[in-house]
Write a structure and sequence with these properties.
Elements: H1 5-11, E1 13-17, H2 21-35, E2 47-49, H3 59-62, H4 68-78, E3 82-92, E4 98-99, E5 128-133, E6 137-143, H5 153-159, E7 175-180, E8 184-188, E9 194-198, E10 205-214, H6 233-237, H7 241-256
Antiparallel strand pairs: 1-8, 2-3, 3-10, 4-9, 5-8, 5-10, 6-7, 6-9
């Protein structure tokens, strides 16, 4: 499936249909089973669950990281040899209050090292994040086109003096809700100004959140979320062959790039994405 690369470059995101009805039912059942466990008994709380870990045994969700439609779409943006950076499921039941401040995904970077040059076409971004909705999702909000430019004065005012995250109550100019229907995914450049917000959440939220980079280039700082100690040989051996292959590639890549601070620097490569 060809994606609209011109739209992705212009707006910072693109939405595509991913799951057929059988896939949707299977992933939805796996996510609902996960949320039915005692650890998630508080039905008025938002949960961010990194599911590719031994304590969750959420094998029904694992295959999402190598779904062919997703991999093909991300390859069109970044190029081949994809490595997954993170894999989680965002869960909330109707009535849950879920509020984030507006932010770009530079929260791991010390504020004095955040260079606004990161938000430009001159600073290649070797990362794509995606939200794959298993139920209707109205919780993703973004400022279209903000990924490749500096903050405007009005946006700086909304951030309230921080480079990390605005106050929850801040009104961000031109922020819009991005509706995802069940089975749709939003692929986005996470340098976009965006937030998660449902006040309250209207429908069950079971949204898979996955990130990738291309091994043709160094990873970004978004690559360092997993606790490698938990990816034990026993756990990796228990995975299906394709999932095991992708987890082993993730582990090998982490051992190759040990210093997250190196990834704050300007990448020395030409991006794959075409205008």
């Amino acid at each position: 499936m060809k994606i609209d690369l011109a739209q992705y470059k212009r707006d910072g995101y693109v939405v595509l249909d991913v799951l057929n009805s059988n896939e949707l039912a299977a992933y939805r059942a796996a996510a609902d089973e996960l949320m039915a466990r005692p650890a998630y008994a508080n039905r008025q709380k938002f949960f961010y669950i990194t599911f590719l870990l031994p304590e969750f045994e959420a094998h029904g969700l694992h295959t999402a990281i190598h779904h062919p439609v997703l991999l093909d779409a991300v390859e069109q943006i970044l190029g081949p040899k994809l490595v997954f950076d993170n894999a989680s499921v965002l869960c909330a039941d109707p009535g849950t209050i879920y509020t984030q401040g507006w932010h770009r995904d530079v929260l791991q970077v010390p504020q004095d090292q955040i260079d606004e040059g990161m938000f430009s076409d001159d600073w290649p971004h070797n990362n794509v994040q995606l939200n794959l909705a298993l139920y209707e999702d109205r919780c993703f909000w973004a400022v279209k086109g903000s990924h490749n430019r500096k903050n405007t004065p009005a946006e700086w005012a909304a951030f309230g003096g921080t480079k990390h995250m605005s106050p929850v109550e801040a009104t961000m100019p031109n922020g819009v809700e991005l509706l995802l229907k069940p089975g749709q995914a939003a692929l986005y450049n996470n340098n976009l100004i965006h937030r998660g917000y449902g006040n309250p959440v209207q429908t069950p939220r079971r949204t898979l959140h996955i990130g990738y980079h291309s091994a043709l280039h160094p990873p970004t700082f978004h690559f360092y979320g997993y606790n490698l100690a938990k990816l034990t040989p026993e756990f990796v051996a228990s995975l299906s062959p394709k999932v095991r292959e992708m987890v082993e590639a993730h582990i090998a890549r982490r051992r190759e790039f040990l210093d997250v601070t190196e990834t704050y620097k300007r990448p020395a490569y030409t991006p794959h994405i075409q205008p």
